[in-house]
Amino acid sequence: MEKLLYLPTHEYIITDGVTGRIGISEYAARQLGNVVYVDMPEVDDEIVAGEEFGAIESVKAASDLFAPVSGTVVGVNEALLDNPRLISENPLKQWIVEIELSDASELDSLLTPEAYTELCANEKH
Amino acid sequence: MDNLKKTALHKRHLEAGAHMSPFGGFDMPIEYAGIVPEHEAVRTRVGAFDVSHMGEVFVEGPEATRFVNYIFTNDVESLAVGRIAYGMMLHPDGGTVDDLLVYRMGVNTYLLVINASNIQKDVAWIMTHAQAFSVRAVNCSDDWAEIALQGPDAEATMLGVLGIDGSGIPFYGFKEMGGLIVSRTGYTGEDGFEIYASPERIDTMWQQLMDAGVQPCGLGCRDTLRFEAGLPLYGDELSDEITPVEAGLGMFVKLDKSDFIGRDAIARQKSDGVTRKIVGLEIEGPAIARHGYEVLDTDGNVVGTVTTGYRSISLGRNLAMALVDSTVAALDTPLQVRVRRKVFPARVIKKRFYTPNYKK
Lengths: 125, 360
Known about the structure:
The complex is a heterodimer.
Chain A (H helix, E strand, L loop, with lengths): L2 E4 L4 E5 L3 E6 L1 H7 L2 E5 L6 E2 L4 E7 L3 E5 L4 E6 L2 H4 L3 H4 L7 E5 L11 H12 L1
Antiparallel strand pairs in A: 1-2, 2-3, 3-9, 4-6, 5-8, 6-7, 8-9
Chain B lengths: L9 H6 L3 E5 L2 E6 L3 H10 L2 E4 L4 E6 L3 H8 L12 E7 L5 E11 L2 E6 L4 H12 L5 E4 L5 E6 L3 H9 L11 E4 L2 E4 L8 E6 L1 H13 L3 E3 L1 H10 L34 H10 L3 E8 L10 E3 L5 E10 L6 E8 L8 E6 L2 E8 L11
Parallel strand pairs in B: 3-13
Antiparallel strand pairs in B: 1-2, 3-9, 4-7, 4-8, 5-6, 6-7, 9-12, 10-11, 11-12, 14-17, 14-19, 15-16, 15-18, 16-17, 18-19
């Protein structure tokens, strides 16, 4: 069964423990506004839990993307290269990269949807 | 957040649901409807900005002209009453204390409009140097609020909504109208006006503009607009370390006037040349070069730093301004920009990316 988990920096992973799709939360997409470019890694790149693996450019700024877990990139969402605005419309469907997890135990430190929602509520204060 | 200053219109911005952020010590609106629609409103119609964060310093006294000419790079001796000069205050080494507008209010009275982020530094600088002159300088920044009305419809909107006739005001001129100062100036590359008044009157005028459906604009599009027009932002293209000659603004430093702070350093730079310059860059590919990113030559050596970069809203191209070694500053020089892990080709172009539509 697939689980949805979050980083406090607003990235999510939808994963069955073997592979996972990583994107940004609806809250983050709303904050960013118009997305003009998604800078993503390439297939076979290694990404490392907690480290930057790409960036999302809105009109006003670049926001780094952080990896929720470590793994190897097995796919990228090429639709975003042609039309980066898709990510604003449906961020949970428009994932950015798909990875093969190298250590599923890293999932234990991520936030559940409930914990993440609470975090966003506190950010808005 | 508690020590952030608020402008007279702060409550209006919150009510309008603006996205707020700290800028120059103030809690300022960044965007209302979004940077893109606000930018386009100014380019095609009209937009209203709260620029009350700007600082106002009045200088008056028998030696006011001599004093302003001593701390300011442009020449105010030849400036007519009712006209405005753009220029800088400089450190002795030519680095920029601030860039500012000087309004000649009277024969012996001037208004200096300074950047919000520099108010403290500038006021201290002005007061220190004023001691040697028979002048009085007063920081009135908290007593004045300011709206910028910018865009091709600015003149008609100002008349129709606020009842202020700006048709007789020339570019870089102003009029005093019953407690208001109205100037044909701005920071967008479009025709427009800046209105200075008491916080109460600014609040009333803002509400009139909003009721008339004028697009409120935040600092987000103020930056994308000024960037396209090739105008510098203090902190990006000018700083305590960057001289006006390096920034390509040497024409606002008049060497053929009485002595002023920084004169010798600028005279040297104008005759000997500078080692680095602000240039325009066009980046090939989808990446956007942001402030602080490295500029490389075609061999991969670091030759400079990006000062501002956007995907231009009006032109749809990835553009940047950058401070680079003079050896690579010539037009059409091929360069590269590092955007995180990747390097993208770039080319030196004129930094006035968008041709301003001023009413001259």
